[in-house]
Specification:
The protein has 197 residues and is an alpha/beta fold. It has six helices and seven strands; from the N terminus they run E-E-H-H-H-E-H-E-E-H-E-E-H. Strands 1-4-3-2-5-6-7 form a seven-stranded parallel sheet, sandwiched between helices.
């Protein structure tokens, strides 16, 4: 498995960019528990936008706690269907790139999480900007962040995500589980995708 940081390698394949947090594993409940130890915050069901936490803490405070969780990534379990989901993507001839917006020091724990849970991964990308992967080799993006989904869609890249309180306003192309998203990926097979420059 190859790990990249801010500047990714150019991979010649039909890449599918797959987020980690709240896509391959349920971060939100753990994040809520950790943040609640220090701040008075609403339940996950009331996290109405992706930056909900900015009302309660600084970005440095948020990153300290979220990075602490990522440093223990290998201690958490993925969604039950994550293994089958990624394997199916690979067997369809696509290249699953697991990409996460997190700090480089979390790379080791993230890689252990992938290996421990046998998650099919052709490439692990950890950086502050996963949109650098949105090139002509990218055939789909799977993420919970509505901004990431929007940026992919603006490039003409099919984008899908799991339904979460913070992306409910997006409405389109959000699903209850990874198997529903897999059905969408199957529909993309052998279909040409035009990526805007």
């Amino acid at each position: 498995m190859h790990i990249s940081r801010p500047q990714p390698q150019r991979i010649t394949a039909k890449n599918i960019i797959v987020d980690i947090d709240d896509t391959l594993w349920p971060l939100a409940p753990t994040l809520h528990d950790e943040l609640s130890l220090h701040y008075s915050i609403p339940p996950v069901s009331e996290w109405s936008d992706f930056g909900w936490w900015k009302k309660f803490m600084t970005i440095e405070e948020f990153w300290t706690i979220s990075t602490g969780i990522s440093l223990r990534q290998d201690q958490y379990d993925p969604y039950p269907e994550a293994h089958i989901f990624l394997l199916a993507i690979k067997e369809m001839g696509f290249n699953p790139i697991i990409a996460s917006h997190r700090k480089a020091i979390t790379s080791s724990a993230t890689q252990k999480f992938i290996i421990k849970n046998e998650l099919a991964c052709g490439h692990l990308h950890i950086s502050q900007d996963k949109t650098v992967l949105f090139d002509q080799n990218c055939i789909a993006v799977i993420d919970d962040n509505p901004d990431i989904l929007e940026k992919a869609a603006m490039r003409g890249i099919p984008a899908f995500g799991l339904k979460c309180p913070w992306n409910r306003e997006k409405r389109d192309h959000l699903y209850d589980n990874l198997f529903d998203i897999l059905d969408c990926i199957k529909a993309l097979k052998d279909q040409p995708t035009e990526i805007l420059a």
